[in-house]
Amino acid sequence: MRNTRADVIAAALRVLDEHGLEFCSMRRVASALGVQPSALYHHVPDKQTLLALMADEIIRGVGGDDAAGLCRSLRSALLAVRDGADVVATAAAFRLGASGLEQRLARLVGPDGASTLLFYTFGHAQSTQTRRQAERFGALPGTDPDAVAAGSAPSQEADASFERGLDIILAGLGRR
Amino acid sequence: MRNTRADVIAAALRVLDEHGLEFCSMRRVASALGVQPSALYHHVPDKQTLLALMADEIIRGVGGDDAAGLCRSLRSALLAVRDGADVVATAAAFRLGASGLEQRLARLVGPDGASTLLFYTFGHAQSTQTRRQAERFGALPGTDPDAVAAGSAPSQEADASFERGLDIILAGLGRR
DNA sequence: ACCTGAACACCGTTCAAGT
DNA sequence: ACCTGAACACCGTTCAAGT
To answer: Domain for residue A27, yes or no?
Structure first.
């Protein structure tokens, strides 16, 4: 037995994190595995399914006691791998609601609160990752080069911004 | 003068609406225009720029007096063309904040309120469009076939769901 | 200015065939 | 069961050349 499905998923996540979603092709995953592209189809029916399996892996272990904790945990899971928010958001649209995460949230804040929190969390994470990549090679207007070089200022402000938006939604949920 | 940049954008939007983002390739836009693929590069530097121009066109005319009206107007613009939410969300990430729409919102509800509302509106619209497409050929679990056939029930519930989430965020914003 | 034709370096996926 | 090799129908983009 040369490779297993778990090997394929792990290799795909490595390629994703190193090169980004745009270059995470079946052919590249295959070559990262030292195998022909066609070999992947023995483990996975198609690319869409592979992306869904990657998404499951990315959000595996997300948890928390309250709504805010759950959202923070989800957010940090999405930000842990390059383009993670994109991968999970796209895949979650097909497999309804990110692996029961929506149900867990719904139990805490109701279905409307759950979807509102999820849309916000995914949107904010996607925006953060897009900005990160723009800074990586483009020098975004209005960005302090030193702060970018330090690598801490952008994520610090992103964290604070996320908390402020979260507070707004939670305040709205409390009003009933 | 055979074709202008506006012709290219219009053709691209037609292809998008008929076939979806997945099949909205430079080659298909070219053939919709009766022209060779390479001809497009006389009007547009690359595909990413064409998508940004399409996004500008999609949200052209979005407006409103208050935050809720602005969000509703944006939402209906996104839903008016197939995969519109995806196209605008991706392009808006590069050209900051959907053509000053974020600034307009920020003036009404502050910067955190603006981004929270935008993340929510884009996320909800994307989810609605993904569901629509799943229903189009896959029969989503838990969906009433008659309601799908009628074509009104899904969008009616989507509208109501959008309003409920909007209310939550606006209530949270009012609390300050 | 606008377009053609040909090429380059890629894609996802299928399928017979090997071990 | 797992993989190779070759093929098919696509991509985005470049570039010389035509009118």
So the answer is: yes
Please return the burial class of B151, using the count of CB atoms within 10 Å of its CB with bins 0-12, 13-18 and 19+.
Answer: exposed
Distance between CA atoms of residues B172 and A82, nearest Å: 31
Are B85 and B78 a contacting pair, CB within 8 Å? yes
Buried b (16+ CB within 10 A) or exposed e, B111-121: ebbbbbbbbbb
CA distance A45 to A26: 12
Q: Are A38 and A82 in a shared domain? A: no
The answer to whether position A91 is within a domain reads: yes
Residues 13-42 of B with CB under 7 A from strand D: 23, 25-28, 37-38, 41
| B14 and B69 fall within a common domain | no
Q: Is residue B52 part of a domain?
A: no
Amino acid at B100: G
Domain membership flag for residue B143: yes
Domain shared by A157 and A95, yes or no: yes
CATH of the domain at B20: 1.10.10.60
Are residues A124 and B119, on separate chains, in Cβ contact within 8 Å? yes
Q: Give me the tens of pLDDT residue by residue for chain B, a chain 176 residues long.
A: 799 999 999 999 999 999 999 999 999 999 999 999 999 999 999 999 999 999 999 999 999 999 999 999 999 999 999 999 999 999 876 555 566 899 999 999 999 999 999 999 999 999 999 988 888 776 555 555 555 454 556 699 999 999 999 999 999 999 86
Q: Determine the distance in angstroms separating the CA of A38 from the nearest CA of chain B, rounded to an integer.
A: 22
If asked whether residues B74 and B32 sit together in one domain, one would say: no
> CATH no. for residue B136?
1.10.357.10
Tell me how many degrees the CA angle A67-A154-A114 measures, rounded to the nearest 5: 20
Given an 8 Å threshold on Cβ–Cβ distance, is A168 in contact with B94? no
